[in-house]
């Protein structure tokens, strides 16, 4: 994760240097203002944007007593503030967490997860422990900052294409403005592509870290592994239109909504189910060895 963040930082330095070199002085403040507004919106409104996009609504302890009871217990065990609790009305069995820090976090489960009779209470607890680990690790903030470079690069490429950022081409006899605009577009596209791959790698690492922390919090890694296998298996029973609706938010979910033709997208945003389960089995073995050692 340190290596990926270092590469993202290095890429950011190179991209900013290219902007300074090729974007005219009069256009550079416009780019920076747009970038600052975009980052501010992502930082302060990430929880509201995510819950609105996924159709989630907050629920009180009276409306969802069992769900709140599990979250309360886990937060006490983790010694962290309780996030707001929400439910998203979708048949896809899943859960997600969002918010820039533990004080502004929302943990959401879908109605498909709540009504899933195949999941035991311990398995649901494992899923929520995974999501609370994302909150405790501030993963939404980490991914927001890491992905901002790609978003900025995409924005600059569009601005260069539609408005031109290489100078005034009408008074450019040597074609320098057109060449500068082409360079800006190419650099932005390459930056976006590399940033996309790095952020996906970082996301996979964060998922493994959340699995590890969630398993250690509950002390029951195999319940989390079982929930992961059941939820992944249940995806095959979900109508394709529901999976298509949920697929844009795969990076948020505990287990991505998977369609058969999007197998590579699953591997790009989350580790494979096999890799996650293998890690949980190793954690279970370690916890078992520790308990035997204490005896």
Automatic annotation (TrEMBL):
Zn(2+) binds at residues 130, 134, 207. GO terms for molecular function: metalloendopeptidase activity; zinc ion binding. The chain crosses the membrane at residues 28-45, 140-165, 177-199. It comes from the Bacteria. Residues 61-281 form the Peptidase M48 domain. Keywords: Cell membrane, Hydrolase, Membrane, Metal-binding, Metalloprotease, Protease, Transmembrane, Transmembrane helix, Zinc. The active site is at 131. It holds the Pfam family Peptidase_M48. InterPro entries: HtpX_protease, Pept_M48_protease_HtpX, Peptidase_M48. Its EC number is 3.4.24.-. It is found in: Cell membrane. GO terms for cellular component: plasma membrane. Binds 1 zinc ion per subunit. Its cofactor is Zn(2+). It is a multi-pass membrane protein. GO terms for biological process: proteolysis. Belongs to the peptidase M48B family. This is Protease HtpX homolog.
